[in-house]
Each structure stands twice: as structure tokens, then as C-alpha cells.
Design a protein that fits this description.
Blueprint (H helix, E strand, L loop, with lengths): L2 H4 L3 H7 L13 H11 L12 E6 H16 L20 H14 L8 H8 L10 E8 L4 H20 L3 E5 L6 H8 L5 E10 L15 H4 L6
Antiparallel strand pairs: 1-2, 2-4, 3-4
Helix pairs in contact: 2-7, 3-7, 4-8
The structure holds flavin mononucleotide (FMN).
Length: about 230
């Protein structure tokens, strides 16, 4: 760890974290990943259940996984039956608008128009290449766990992503991996009682790649202050 990254301010870590979707092939040292995951273990969870189960893949196992899912995507294989619903089926306002705004930004940065669903689908297949990242984390949760524990896992994942920033690394959380969960399980062999929540690509950003920064709703839309 260099002095510069060791002292990254928490605000800077939060605001500089974004979903990076193009990485260089520079390897991520094992000791860095261990340092990040050891610190992330201090994430809070209700009654300290620590309901996260993380698998970290680099090298051959990750290459094998990318190959297998890449083949499935290329063959137009149907997705595995979902174990959880990624989004409510009929997103209402304001979530619907936020989602469509995100899609426009994400694919607009790649020069893909709103109506070009084929091109959007092709771009989405980069998910299963981990956007070129040389490391990936897969996070599982016990199927007995409920919404509060899923929320604990979210806190854990965010902690991991912020610590990665402190190490000069970037990441992209990816629920997209859940659609090929059987292939992920083939490579990882997790215990049968676990559900794959999401993957996370980890690596050094390819700064030459185009991207559009997502915005956020104004504070008054999501926060209410009650004052005397
Ligand atoms: C749980 C979770 C799952 C996500 N899944 C994907 C995914 O499958 N593919 C992807 O490209 N981005 C994915 N994202 C990234 C979001 O699209 C991104 O966080 C959001 O648009 C806000 O943008 P920002 O992270 O760049 O600030 C996911 C983010 C989270 C938190």
C-alpha cells in the first residue's frame, strides 16, 4: 500500500467509487485482497451474524468461469431459474425513471441508442467477462436469511468496494452473475444451502474507456429532516 492510498479520506473513497466496466489486465496482489477482506470483515450486521460468504477468484479458476459463461452467453443459453427477484416486476415511479435514466447513461456512453436492444444485450455480455478484470468476488448468502441479513451483505459489499478504493483499485458489483449461477457453482462448489447474490469485478481501471457518471436524486427526494 502506498502512503497516498493508505490515507484516502472516507468521503473520497465514497465519491470516487463507481461501477467501473473496463479494467486493465494488471494483476491484483493476493495480499491486497486479503488486507481488504480482513478489514471488511469488520462490517456491521444485526446480532453480528456476518451472513456473507465470499469467494475470490483470480487466475485459472476465473479464466475457466469466464470461458464457461462466455460459451453459454454466445450460445444464447437460457438463464438459470432465478433464486431471487432482482427488481420488482412493475417498477413504479420514481424508480422506473431512475432505472431508465441509468440505462440511457450506461449505454449512451458506448454509443448505443435507447432502442438498440441487441447492442445493449451484447454490451451486457461484458458482465461475464468481468469487464476484463483479473479478479472477482462472488458473494453468497444462506437461503434461510431474510431481508435484514441481505441488507447486512450489502453493507459488507460496500465496505469491500470502499476499501478497494483505498488500495487504488476499482470494482463493479454484478447481480448479472446470478443468471448463470449454476455455472458459477460448477467452478466454486459452494455448499447447497447458499444463494448467489452477486459477483464483483475487481481490478485497476482502464482509464481510456468511455463512461458516463451516474447521478443521484437530490437530497430532499430521499432524506427527510424533522426539526423543531
Ligand atoms: C447489488 C448491485 C448489483 C449490480 N449489478 C450490476 C450488474 O450486474 N452489471 C453492471 O454493469 N452493474 C451492476 N451494478 C452497478 C450499478 O448499475 C451501479 O452501482 C449504479 O448504476 C450506480 O452507479 P455507480 O455505482 O457508478 O455510482 C450493480 C450494483 C449493485 C449495488
Amino acid at each position: 500500500m502506498t502512503d497516498a492510498t493508505a490515507t484516502m479520506d472516507v468521503y473520497e473513497a465514497v465519491t470516487s467509487r463507481r461501477a467501473v466496466r473496463r479494467f486493465t489486465d494488471r494483476e491484483v496482489p493476493r495480499e491486497v485482497l486479503e488486507r481488504v477482506l480482513s478489514a471488511a470483515a469488520w462490517s456491521p450486521s444485526g446480532s453480528n451474524l456476518q451472513p456473507w460468504h465470499a469467494y475470490v477468484l483470480t487466475g485459472e479458476p476465473l479464466a475457466e468461469l469466464k470461458k464457461l459463461t462466455g460459451e453459454r452467453a454466445a450460445d444464447g443459453d437460457p438463464w438459470d431459474e432465478p433464486e431471487f427477484q432482482m427488481y420488482p416486476p412493475d417498477l413504479k415511479s420514481p424508480y422506473r425513471e431512475r432505472r431508465s435514466d441509468f440505462g440511457e447513461k450506461r449505454y449512451g456512453a458506448l454509443g448505443i441508442s435507447r432502442e438498440d436492444w441487441d447492442a445493449r444485450r451484447r454490451a451486457a455480455t461484458d458482465n461475464w467477462e468481468c469487464f476484463g478484470a483479473p479478479a472477482a468476488l462472488f458473494c453468497y448468502i444462506d437461503r434461510d436469511m431474510g431481508p435484514p441479513q441481505w441488507s447486512d451483505v450489502g453493507m459488507y459489499l460496500q465496505t469491500v468496494m470502499l476499501l478497494l478504493r483505498a488500495e487504488g483499485l476499482h470494482s463493479c458489483a454484478q447481480m448479472a452473475w446470478s443468471v448463470y449461477r449454476r455455472t458459477v457453482a460448477e467452478v466454486l462448489s459452494p455448499p447447497s444451502g447458499l444463494i448467489l447474490y452477486c459477483g464483483m469485478s475487481i481490478g485497476y481501471e482502464d482509464v481510456t474507456a468511455a463512461y458516463a457518471r451516474t447521478g443521484r436524486a437530490p437530497l430532499h427526494e430521499t432524506v427527510t429532516f424533522l426539526e423543531s
